[in-house]
Write a structure and sequence with these properties.
Layout: H1 15-21, H2 24-27, H3 31-47, H4 53-72, H5 84-88, H6 94-126, E1 131-136, E2 139-145, H7 146-171, E3 173-174, H8 190-197, E4 201-202, H9 206-211, H10 214-240, E5 248-249, H11 268-291, H12 306-326, E6 331-332, H13 334-341, H14 348-357, H15 362-379, H16 388-392, H17 402-405, H18 408-414, H19 423-437
Parallel strand pairs: 3-4
Antiparallel strand pairs: 1-2, 5-6
Helix pairs in contact: 3-4, 3-6, 3-8, 6-7, 6-12, 6-19, 7-10, 7-19, 10-11, 10-12, 11-12, 14-15
Length: 438
């Protein structure tokens, strides 16, 4: 088939070059967006009198027919026509299709994040009073509520949702009408076209319009942060489902076995989510590296922008969907978590704060408590098993009310500062998220 730009050339394009430069094998997923843009453009041309209205109507009718053929599978994409635009014979910039595509996908991703938040809030509601050890440096630190720990992920996901919503503002800019790079001398109406396509703004500089892929890079960046959060969750689920932790058991529906070891139950969904995070990071770096050395305006390198975006969209949506489905079925071992919540001298901070309330400066209270912990470690006993006389040998200010203070259940109840782990605060956080997610 004759190329639209063949007039300048005296020889045909090499078959190897056509194979090397084609992108329709992957960017054909943009066909709906490409046709939608072409229809809007044709209607604008007819409205402005740039082409006869009957021609505009005929183009729209022809594009609708192509859309029906593609949808039914009758239309055959040809790789010798390079990309989705040439296959549909639309003189559109790829940036328009990519923006329409990402606007649609970002909206869906925001909805999927919301679903995952709801799963966390629902699970938190089931475990208001479930004690567990909180960690720093992966060492037992202080008792917390499992519900509080779960809501930490709901909080992370809220930031993700806000970031995608903010990213959507910069995606929702129409570049159509910028032409090759300098605009046009024809009396086009970009505002009308933007209205037809539902864009809230139109791009302000034709050179930037053609060369801008910031919106795609930002989308990948926001996606990378989201995947980092999902990977942290996955890491904890992997750890918690080990025999060493025994905090959680993932449903059989979301685990696999071993072909050799009959006893195995492997957390493959969590592991794969953790692994797929690296793909999304790689996609971000691929696009940033692609763009970093490009002079203005368009360069063919930009053809490579779509694969990282498509892969990231597919990966993010798959991970969010499967985790939302998996979370409600996780069984937590409440007794195991409660027993370990008080181990490792995790209420030592409560003891130090107890001394502070008695008038001891915190530095001194910290040292006294450290000596008590060292004394207990030497005897391999928990603090609560120490006799009051032993405790008083470290400070006369300690009385028998200390035993209720260092009880893990009482410890969490006292953490009632805003955003803390007390049951009352967790209930407030749950109410807050339910309102937010309604």
């Amino acid at each position: 088939m004759k190329k639209p730009w063949a007039g300048r050339f005296s020889d045909r394009t090499s078959a190897s070059v056509e194979a090397f430069t084609e992108s329709v094998s992957y960017d054909k997923r943009l066909w709906r967006h490409d046709i939608r843009g072409s229809i809007a453009h044709a209607r604008m041309l007819g409205r402005q009198g740039i082409i006869p209205k009957k021609d505009s109507a005929a183009i729209v009718k022809g594009l609708d027919r192509i859309a029906a053929d593609i949808d039914s599978g009758r239309f055959k994409f040809r790789e010798d026509l390079e990309d989705v635009h040439m296959n549909i014979e639309a003189a559109l910039q790829v940036a328009l299709d990519l923006r329409l595509y990402l606007r649609e996908e970002t909206t869906e991703i925001i909805s999927l994040i919301k679903d995952l938040q709801k799963a966390f809030v629902g699970l938190a509601g089931e475990h208001i009073d479930t004690l567990m050890p909180g960690y720093t440096h992966l060492q037992r630190a202080q008792p917390v509520l499992l519900s509080h720990h779960l809501l930490a992920y709901a909080e992370m996901l809220q930031r993700d949702r806000e970031r995608f919503a903010d990213c959507l503002i910069r995606i929702d800019v129409m570049p159509l009408g910028s032409c090759a790079l300098s605009g046009t001398s024809l009396p086009t109406d970009r505002t009308y076209t933007a209205k037809l396509l539902g864009f809230s703004r139109i791009s302000g500089n034709s050179i930037d319009s053609v060369s801008d892929r910031d919106f795609a890079a930002e989308f990948l960046s926001v996606s990378a942060i989201l995947m980092m959060h999902l990977s942290r969750l996955s890491e904890e689920l992997v750890l918690w489902s080990t025999e060493e932790f025994r905090f959680a058991e993932i449903s059989d529906r979301f685990t696999t076995g071993s072909s050799i070891m009959p006893q195995k139950k492997n957390p493959d969904v969590a592991e794969l989510t953790r692994g797929k995070t690296g793909r999304v990071y790689g996609n971000l770096m691929a696009l940033l590296t692609l763009l970093k050395g490009l002079p203005l305006a368009y360069n063919r390198d930009m053809q490579e922008d779509k694969l990282p975006v498509f892969d990231t969209v597919d990966t993010v949506k798959a991970c969010l969907s499967v985790l939302s489905e998996m979370l409600p079925g996780i069984c937590f071992d409440k007794a195991r978590m409660r027993d370990t919540a008080g181990e490792g001298y995790s209420t030592a901070t409560d003891l130090a704060e107890y001394l502070v309330r008695k008038g001891v400066p915190f530095r001194e209270a910290h040292e006294i408590t450290g000596k008590i912990v060292l004394f207990c470690i030497g005897r391999k006993i928990p603090i609560e098993s120490l006799a009051l006389t032993d405790l008083k040998s470290f400070s006369d200010l300690i009385s028998d009310d200390i035993y209720s203070v260092i009880d893990p259940s009482n410890s969490v109840k006292t953490r009632s500062s805003f955003g803390g782990t007390s049951p009352s605060e967790v209930r407030r956080q749950i109410r807050h998220f339910k309102k937010l997610l309604r």
